[in-house]
Amino acid sequence: MNLAAIQEELKKQKLDGWLFFDHHHRDPLAYRVLGFQPTSHVTRRWYYFIPAAGEPRGLVHRIESGKLDSLPGDKVRYSSWSEQTGGLRSLVGGARRVAMQYSPMCAVPYVAMVDAGTVELVRSLGVEVVSSAELIQHFEARWTAEALESHLEAGRRVDRVRGQAFEMIRQITRSGGAVEEFAVAQFVRDAFAKAGLFAEDGPIVGVNANAANPHYEPTAEVTSKIRSGDLVLLDMWAKLKQPGSVYYDITWTGFCGDHPSDAMREVYGVVSGARDAAIRRVEDAVAAGKELHGFEVDDAARGYITSHGYGQFFVHRTGHSIGEEVHGNGANMDNLETHDERRVVPWTCFSIEPGVYLKDFGIRSEVNMFVGENEARVTGEIQRELVII
């Protein structure tokens, strides 16, 4: 735990402190930010309060009194409900605005780790509870230079595998054959392993109508054949097999044959145009030094698609934060599923992946954007037209 950095950020955000709480390992964010991991089960509630100035302090149950011993500051012990309430009152005494892993209306579910009853308990002590979403982003979502390099290297390897997967499909379909979606997915997984890449799940391989299901994933039991004349969507994500590495996450679409339909070409043009509009929105804001929020990036992509008559077919957010998990804990590019007001901050990365999903096919185009101190850039190859497989 970097106590000085936490207290500095609390002062910047005009907060009196940050209250951490856990019971039965409900909040992995707390353990990561505080930098400790209990060696045994957490069967009783603990609290740890970091004030904006001064020494942190904790509250632990007597039968698990050593849970916070690795953290600085005094620890108060309790057994009864009344002792817990009194100890909590002392813990946050004098604080007016305190951050917790809470999100109003559950707008940011990645941060909403504290149950409603505990928030009510803290509020009953006269404390205003605010969301720790911006704090979590500051300490969880920002990359190091080493993480960025791992992302760029993963991107080079994933892009090669993507090309190999399209070539596999091409060789089979151009000779009049058919290949199962699941076989292509297995090909990608095997190629990832050979390339020193790790992915917890995936990839998505969808043909025709299956490509119109944003989270479709073939299995050995549920799979469709890919043939000449079909549209294929490949969504793949992976990171290097090494500690601290971060994900690279892309989606490309292609057509098995020489002549995609006019509808496919039109939809691809709309989707790629929306992607580029969102990219420009980020680039322009960063270059001008202007504050940018996740919902504004979504607005740029969604506005473009809506202006071309396909708004009702864009059914998910424009993008998500990327980190050591493929869906990270920074700002999402979202003004549909939630109104994400978190800032797009330096040293973070996120996807931009608008899509249009019709009855017979769907098209999504996904890139990753990294924001530095004074520049923003797409970190890998950009698909400029439908792949002719």
Which terms summarize this structure?
389 residues; alpha+beta; Creatine Amidinohydrolase, Chain A, domain 1; Creatine Amidinohydrolase; 5-stranded mixed sheet; 9 helices; 21% strand
CATH topology of the largest domain: Creatine Amidinohydrolase
- Name the CATH superfamily classification of the largest domain: Creatinase/methionine aminopeptidase superfamily
Taken together, the total number of domains comes to 2
- The first-to-last residue Cα distance is 50 Å
Assembly classification: single chain
Spatial ordering of strands, largest sheet = 4-3-2-1-5-6
Beta content: 15-25%
The CATH architecture name of the largest domain reads Alpha-Beta Complex
- Give average pLDDT, whole number: 96
Radius of gyration: 24 Å
In DSSP terms (H or I, runs of 4 or more residues), the helix count works out at 9
Q: What's the story with the biggest beta sheet?
A: 6 strands, mixed
Please provide the count of β strands: 19
Structural class: alpha+beta
The helix/strand order is HEHEEEHEHEHHEHEEEEEHHEEEEEEE
* Helical residues, percent: 25-40%
Polypeptide structure, described:
- The protein has 9 helices and 19 strands.
- With 389 residues, it is an alpha+beta fold.
- It folds into 2 domains: 3-140, Creatine Amidinohydrolase, Chain A, domain 1; 142-388, Alpha-Beta Complex (Creatine Amidinohydrolase), CATH 3.90.230.
- A 6-stranded mixed β-sheet has the order 4-3-2-1-5-6.
